[in-house]
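B., you asked whether I could sanity-check this one before it goes into the benchmark set. Here's the sequence:
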Amino acid sequence: MIQHMGEEPIALDASALGDYWPGIQLYYPPVKYAPSLGIYEDMEQAANRMVKHAHFTNAHTLIFDLEDGCRQKEMSRTLLRQELPKLRKVNERVTIAIRANSFRTDEYEEDMKLVRDMDEYIDVVMLAKAGESYGAAEVRDLSSFLISINPHITIQPIIEHPKSLKIAPDLMQYDTVKHVVFGIHDFSKALGIHITPEHWIEELFYFINQMIFEARIAGKGVIGGVETLIGSNIMPDKFVEPHDVRRWLDLHGDNESRVVYKHACQEAAMGLTGKQVIHPGHIHLCKTAYTPSPTEINKKVAILKAAIEADALLGGAIKFDGEMLDPPMFGKALQTLLRAHALRALKTSDMEFALHVLQLMPAQVVRQNWPYGILL
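And here's what the prediction gave me:
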């Protein structure tokens, strides 16, 4: 139980930690251009591709892009009406996101008809160019619409312009918004910054930190930039420990994979809650960067157990593996466990232990360590 000052204790379970994070998001074109044929797919070809690839994706989230990356918009919406129920039946774990067109455009209105009709199969609406035309009223209006049809659908505003970043706190104020997306390519275009696929984090570092700062205050997550690099080598799923990943990259990885992994590690270190890719081969690579490894989880559990045994969790210090650790370090250890849980990678026994640690902490300390749940 966790008790707020002057309030009844709160029963704590995993649901109190908030929803699962967006994690690694794969852009999936509903109807795709076929370079080998020089034409777009027809409905049958697009449906077959979805069965072959989308049904068994290992991404946390599938983004069905109806905006910039979609030329055949009406045909794509027709395909999604037909195929989303089949996808949900086969893959219950994957988050389904619709990237909608800009607010109040004709295509946006058609997108909302799709969302209304298929609401039970859609988890997230990503709003392109959020706030650029009508400010925070765009998210307010979309929130009202989604609550009226299905309150479980959340919004991920895409920050693609400096004026959207300027009003980021206003865009994040709604309960329907759990995470925001940094649209690095449109954002850099609006600023006249020519970013490169290899160094865009350094080139946009100031603005990324601005967004993280505002999101942390609001208790929201930030989804990192989409990688445009396309490599040829795919790392097998059996590699999960950082040293194994680095060895594979050294021996078998291409330059594109090394760059994408480096970026994913940087974003994870900054506390981002998701990342976007366009190449399926980069999904597992980014997962390993974002998700604490089994070895890291075991170490953090050991640290927290030592802190509890020494009665130092809330005050005091311990010596662990040659280091002096105190409550801020214990908080970071707990964050690692909660991060693994948010990315669906924490086994039940470790989740139960993390909840036990949370129950030993005052509510204010929990809020400091984890701003995403109901304890805000």
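One thing to flag: DSSP finds 16 helices and 14 strands in the chain. Otherwise nothing jumped out at me.
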